[in-house]
Amino acid sequence: MYDAIIIGAGASGLVCAINLARGGKSVAIIEAQKRGGKKILASGNGHCNIANANVSTKNFYGKNSKLIEEIVKVKPAQIVEFFNTLGLEIVTKDDGKMYPKSMQASIVLELLEAEIDRLNISKFYEVKELNIKRGFEVSFNNSTIKANNLIIATGSQAAPQLGGNSSGLEIAKNFNHTIIPQIPALVPLISSHPICKSLAGVKVKAKVRLFSNDKELSSQIGDFLFAKYGVSGLSILDLSLKANLALEKNRCHIIVDFFSDYSKQTLLEYLKSRIDKKRDLKLQLWLGAIINSKLSEYLLKELKLDEKSEAKLNSKLLKEIVEHFKNYRIEISGSREFKYAEVAYGGVDSREIDSKTMQSKKEKNLYFIGEVIDTVGDRGGYNFHFAWSSAVLCSSYCLGVPKSCVQ
Ligand SMILES: Cc1cc2nc3c(=O)[nH]c(=O)nc-3n(C[C@H](O)[C@H](O)[C@H](O)COP(=O)(O)OP(=O)(O)OC[C@H]3O[C@@H](n4cnc5c(N)ncnc54)[C@H](O)[C@@H]3O)c2cc1C
Questions:
Q1: How confident is the model at residue 402 (pLDDT cuts 50, 70, 90)?
Q2: Which CATH architecture has domain 189-259?
Q3: How far, in Å, CA of 188 to CA of 211, rounded?
Q4: How far is the CA of 287 from the centre of ligand 1 (A)?
Q5: Distance 155 CA to ligand 1 centre (A)
Q6: pTM of the entire structure?
Q7: Fewest Cβ atoms closer than 10 Å to its Cβ: which of 65, 79, 145, 225?
């Protein structure tokens, strides 16, 4: 009989297991794959953006604002302290993003795994045909183990190639929990606008404004990438959750400003100042010198100005160019599927989870931690913050000690 069985050896499950075992509890961890934590390995483009120094409730989206408040009470310094006890050094970049000093995601997982082994936590990996009975009795691969507490840390459906699936939601349903349907987040968006296919692979810096039924919802400045299926880049990933939520009821479009460093007026004046009648360059060459040439060629063609030269420019044409390059409309029809998403919004309804302990309000001694819960964070280390912090809240409650003592 274990004190706790944890299902899922990913970010939240591993930290929870370590905290419980350090507090003297007997723990078994069950994992579907040969090795857990595959999302940690892939995270932050292999660098693992482990947390963010500037965490606030505004960085999270879920049904239970009280739970989000508790999650941000676990401070980044506490997360750093925990990882320091594993031997990991963490650095904070100017924008608040935190990474392992070596900038290698692999070391984060290796140190967590080393601690799991040092603490003699029972590991059951590559489990199949999981069956859970109240009490708790967990059967798999022809064996059965029992525990007083059951912790579900199975993650979300995002990135199935890294272990993402919906099994945690099925378990929650069997305990009468409500499920908020999961949708992909931090994901590229789909558009049939011909510019996407024509310029696939072209990446620029832009300001992107997201509109739902002509009402502006949000904006981002950053990488913007054209792709065969639509649009991507960090600016799009950051807007994707709001787009996907809006698309459930409304039409959506983005307005892209390819000259985000300039106001319309300053851009107009700047372009005027660049006119050199002696050289009289073709507009394509003239603009291609200051903005991606494939992009300028495409946009000038749309204005039917590609054959013109700078000598032909007058105020009206300059204004047309400014308007077109700073207010480019692209309709959005959806997002790419879970395979291309970093995270998922939706999951076990967080209003049915006690915000201080992560315990189910439907079943005593049943807990949910990490991304299986409906709450999702912004890009920038916030999703790991949620995984680690929910694990800390759960393990400190199971241990009966204040969370500040869990290290
Ligand atoms: C490509 C990519 C990059 C990312 N980069 C970042 C980043 O830099 N910073 C950041 O904050 N977030 C990042 N994230 C998000 C972050 O990885 C997740 O939010 C976090 O891993 C969620 O932790 P979790 O414990 O809830 O789930 P997971 O880490 O997904 O772990 C769940 C585990 O449960 C196992 N499992 C599932 N079902 C079962 C079952 N039925 N039985 C047994 N085991 C099961 C899975 O195999 C998996 O090992 C990234 C995600 C992806 C996909």
A1: low
A2: Beta Barrel (2.40)
A3: 16
A4: 44
A5: 5
A6: 0.94
A7: 65
